[in-house]
Amino acid sequence: MIEPGDALPALTLEGSDGRIALAERGGPLLLYFYPKDDTAGCTREAQDFSALLPQFAALGVELLGVSKDSAAKHRKFTEKYDLSVPLATDDGTVMEAFGVWIEKQLYGRRYMGIDRSTFLFDGEGKLFRAWRKVRVPGHAEAVLAAAKEMLGK
């Protein structure tokens, strides 16, 4: 499990424009992991980050949402809700490295799923802050405030 101060793992994701090598990103990076496209909480989270994307961009912070959904499903989700935040697909490798692929329980049934989590990396690729078991309301704003703190703005 990745902790503050740890380096961004040298792993890849599948983005809409091809492979994304995480460790090769230049500048600050915000990765947020979410369970599933087109569900209430995940939609709200993507809309909140999309609304704040210009403010993150002004700080030089790149955003990337990650789930196990396919690129085709991401495209439909993005178009349906006019999202501007980029989304990527993971086969589970990156989720395992970040410790967000966990056992969950719903109505007494146990299953494996994604723990809604967010990770903010500085310009050197070191983890500045992590949020686990995220509650969506107000989260994007809290992350933006942390990015400003990280960058001294």
From TrEMBL:
Transmembrane segments: none annotated. One of its GO terms (molecular function) is thioredoxin peroxidase activity. PROSITE patterns: THIOREDOXIN_2. InterPro entries: AhpC/TSA, Peroxiredoxin_BCP/PrxQ, Thioredoxin-like_sf, Thioredoxin_domain. SUPFAM superfamilies: Thioredoxin-like (SSF52833). Pfam families: AhpC-TSA. GO terms for cellular component: cytoplasm. GO terms for biological process: cell redox homeostasis; cellular response to oxidative stress. Keywords: Antioxidant, Disulfide bond, Oxidoreductase, Peroxidase, Redox-active center. It comes from the Bacteria. Its EC number is 1.11.1.24. It catalyses: a hydroperoxide + [thioredoxin]-dithiol = an alcohol + [thioredoxin]-disulfide + H2O. Residues 2-152 form the Thioredoxin domain. Thiol-specific peroxidase that catalyzes the reduction of hydrogen peroxide and organic hydroperoxides to water and alcohols, respectively. Plays a role in cell protection against oxidative stress by detoxifying peroxides and as sensor of hydrogen peroxide-mediated signaling events. Monomer. Belongs to the peroxiredoxin family. BCP/PrxQ subfamily. This is thioredoxin-dependent peroxiredoxin. It comes from Sphingomonas naasensis.
